[in-house]
Amino acid sequence: xxxxxxxxxxxxxxxxxxxxxxxxxxxxxxxxxxxxxxxxxxxxxxxxxxxxxxxxxxxxxxxxxxxxxxxxxxxxxxxxxxxxxxxxxxxxxxxxxxxxxxxxxxxxxxxxxxxxxxxxxxxxxxxxxxxxxxxxxxxxxxxxxxxxxxxxxxxxxxxxxxxxxxxxxxxxxxxxxxxxxxxxxxxxxxxxxxxxxxxxxxxxxxxxxxxxxxxxxxxxxxxxxxxxxxxxxxxxxxxxxxxxxxxxxxxxxxxxxxxxxxxxxxxxxxxxxxxxxxxxxxxxxxxxxxxxxxxxxxxxxxxxxxxxxxxxxxxxxxxxxxxxxxxxxxxxxxxxxxxxxxxxxxxxxxxxxxxxxxxxxxxxxxxxxxxxxxxxxxxxxxxxxxxxxxxxxxxxxxxxxxxxxxxxxxxxxxxxxxxxxxxxxxxxxxxxxxxxxx
Length: 438
What we know:
six-stranded parallel β-sheet, alpha/beta
């Protein structure tokens, strides 16, 4: 029996991409008698004490091998010894409920677990996995690698620069976790190179595992009649954006591009699903308010309906480590337009299963999109329905070949098994690269 403890933090990332990642793992591993999955949610806002719950949310309430363990937020002092003390308390409380044997894996999905990882390393010889879904500094700086490079060497002493403050403590703690782990998992080949170059990680200890979603066997059909239920015209083209409302997601460029689209094809609507700084983007919609719908964040059932009525999906991120939304759009056979960066660049093959828009990088490393280019691609899909259908059909084929949750889980278990084996033979010169195909 293999047992894994996955540590996540109850922040915005858990509400979005990391939460979807955990859900996909649960759906795939539920009912597996040879595997126990324990998800440790740190900093929970819903529980005032440690709470262990057997997760019966999948497989008709018959799941017994998946547990959710909630820890409330602890006082987060200013000194490292306070963090360490909180971490020791957390590990000690886990020890009262669980047994850690030789087949136990500790899996961290956030740098926020650095102090718990250090305590575990002090007490146990079990493998520690660091699972990077993004690089913290790339989010803070919108992927500006030149700006990061300028601050990295003086990160610990450069307190006066606001950008330097933004990338602390994430970059520092990501580096420390990379130094103490047994293996690192990343989402894309580009991220593998970034981790190696940024943190000096041993490339042989890094595996690329693409995220995946669950294939229920029946692809949801298009339901245009639902457009009228939500107040859209039956023949109105629905352009869909799903994600947090922030500059990193490129929503500002999409709104500008949509204005250009309306000047050529007025019978269309932009639907923006997600929460964030509405005021900023409402101002961008001046003069076209009646053509843009902000829904806020939606639960999965309501989001499903929008996926089934959308005519075009747009993921215009200027930095995106992977892009779960792209997979969901592909699964729903929505023709997609994305950018040629990091994650989307490895999901979309331009002209085959989607269309790519260039992200421009200036001399200072700042990223941007030309609204005119994005508008041109949108209009291309509006006017060429045969192309749109072909892209959507091939997108589903590529999804089922490369980006399903069972493929993701199998690769993860392979890393677990290989890392356990290497731990067992540590010191016998048996260290070798763990071969995982993303």
